[in-house]
Each structure stands twice: as C-alpha cells, then as structure tokens.
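Bench log. Compound arrived from synthesis this morning; before running ITC I wanted a structural hypothesis for how zinc ion sits in the protein. Inputs:
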Amino acid sequence: MSIIDKALEANRNYAKNYNPMLGKRPAPKIAVVTCMDPRLSDLPGILGLPQADLDVIRTGGPAVTEDVLAELIVSNRVLGTSEILLLNHTGCGFTTFTDHELNAKLRASTGDSSPAPMRFFSYKDPEENTREQIKKVRSHPWIAKDVPVRGVIFDVDSGLLREVQPTEKQAAA
Ligand SMILES: [Zn+2]
C-alpha cells in the first residue's frame, strides 16, 4: 500500500474527532518562512506558539522567492499577521549542491534536459542567506514598516534558535 493510500485511510479516523470549529476563518498572528526540511515541522514545539497562530510558508532553503514575498504580503495584509520570522537551519540539503551541479547531475542521470536550467535556490551559508532574506522582505514596499522582520537559525543538533543580526557586525577599526 502506498504512503498516500495509508494516509487517506488514516484520515477517516482523524475526521471522526475533528473539531469543526477549526474550519472557521484562520487568524494567524505571525508568518514563518522556513525550509521544507522535516526537522522543522514541529514549529509549535520549536517556537512554543499555538499552531493556529502560525502562518507557515515552506520552501527549500528557505528561499524568499517572488512567490514567498507574495504569500507574506497576503499573510500581512489579508490575514493580518503582525510579525515575520525567517527560520533558517543548519545542515540544510540546499547547501550540499550548487544549482549548476544539480542541473548537470540530473541531466546526466535522466538523459533529459530541463527546458531551461532549474533554479533550485541552493546557497552556502545560512547566516548570509538569512541576512539576504531580511533585506529582501524588508525592502518590499507592501510589507508594512511596523511589521518586525527577524531571522533565526535553528541548530538541528541542539534544537536551539540563534538570532541573526540584519547587518554583519563591523570589525573594530
Ligand atoms: Zn533546509
């Protein structure tokens, strides 16, 4: 039986105890952009916030793409979230290849080319990635100025979050 078939079967039990109140219009308080990595799935646990408060946008990396920016704007302006958290992590799969390498590898292993080189949003350094994300989100005019945009890195070995300052600390002159 496929995983999806098992899941569809399990869902029939889930629905028996489902609280229909949860079907009301959501009112999340904070938008969280994080990686597709399964180690980041327990966000209520990692952040100590109720699931209903979290508007979660997941993407590889996480990359703040144009789509993610649009989702953040909807989260802020339509759903009413009032803070944005960019949640990066150590040990990210997207740091283990470059876009160029993965394109070449898939071309070779499948014998087929993608119509255009795929943009995988690979990156090297989670700290630098976080700073670029903060800048990108902050600079969009539709993200309200009074909405805090902060970035953190989740350490997959310790479970701890560490905040990244938006600009690199200047070395003392
Ligand atoms: Zn990742």
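What the model suggests: Residues 35, 37, 61, 89, 92-94 surround zinc ion (CB under 6 Å). Residues 30 and 83 are 5 Å apart (CA to CA).
ITC booked for Thursday regardless.
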